[in-house]
Amino acid sequence: MSTMTDFAADFAPGSVWLVGAGPGHAGLLTLQAHAALQAADIIVYDALVGDDILALAPEETPREYAGKRGGKPSPKQADISLRLIQLARQGKRVLRLKGGDPFVFGRGGEEALTLVQAGVPFRICPGITAGIGGLAFAGIPLTHRDTNHAITMITGHDATGNVTGVDWDAVAKGSPALVLYMAIKHIGAISEKLIAAGRPASEPVAVVTNASLPEMSVLETSLGNAATDIERHNVKPPAIVAIGEIVRLRSGLDWLGAASGKVLEPDPLSLGRDDSEQTG
């Protein structure tokens, strides 16, 4: 029978593994991520990697924080990539641990290409991105045959830190359901652009903060009221924003709420919602 460490048997000295840690809950780590935590000589981790995940590594394994958070002093991306190269050239098994999935708005591609340029061996270990796992924890499915046959995942800002680089008109018309990452700062401008492009102001919106963690909360609102409600409830990142009829399904699929006594709706798509509410 295979042991857990078999999943990291080829984690070679002098290499870097870019590993997705999932949306936050330690139970959502992959077996390979868990094995890499055991085998690494050093862990370089992001801001969204929680202490309970880091605690799965041996206590003596060094940890280096390389978190990048918008609006706060953060390491430069180039410096992080160069540090990975430096550590690998010291012959270490370097675990680059990133929240969610390293290739979904995680800049893992940039780091991997830098490793390629430096001739450093690497491996990509996918993780559960917050736009999937976080919404599932909140009782919001990405797809449902009665609501949508497509989903669009979008970053809430472009490389300049603004929303000008996204074709919001095409986004508004191209997919019945949208999932926004890193969008809290610009949610007002995004909502205006989507409404101007034809999305109804009454369209359901859910803002999931601290997805999958015990302190997770969900703000349900509408596209027209999202910016006001986010400010009124003092919603802070990290957050995932879901837009579309998939949000209505939460009234029937909030499994965490049901565990606490919430009565679920058997036919949530028949319900309309004009008000906003925040639940834990």
UniProtKB/TrEMBL annotation:
Domain Tetrapyrrole methylase, first and last residues per copy: 16-226
Superkingdom of origin organism: Bacteria
Keywords carried by this UniProt record: Cobalamin biosynthesis, Methyltransferase, Porphyrin biosynthesis, S-adenosyl-L-methionine, Transferase
EC numbers, comma separated: 2.1.1.107
InterPro entries on file: 4pyrrol_Mease (IPR000878), 4pyrrol_Methylase_sf (IPR035996), 4pyrrole_Mease_sub1 (IPR014777), 4pyrrole_Mease_sub2 (IPR014776), CobA/CysG_C (IPR006366), Siro_Cobalamin_biosynth (IPR050161), Uropor_MeTrfase_CS (IPR003043)
Enzyme's top EC category: transferase
GO biological process, one term: siroheme biosynthetic process
Name of the protein in its database record: uroporphyrinogen-III C-methyltransferase
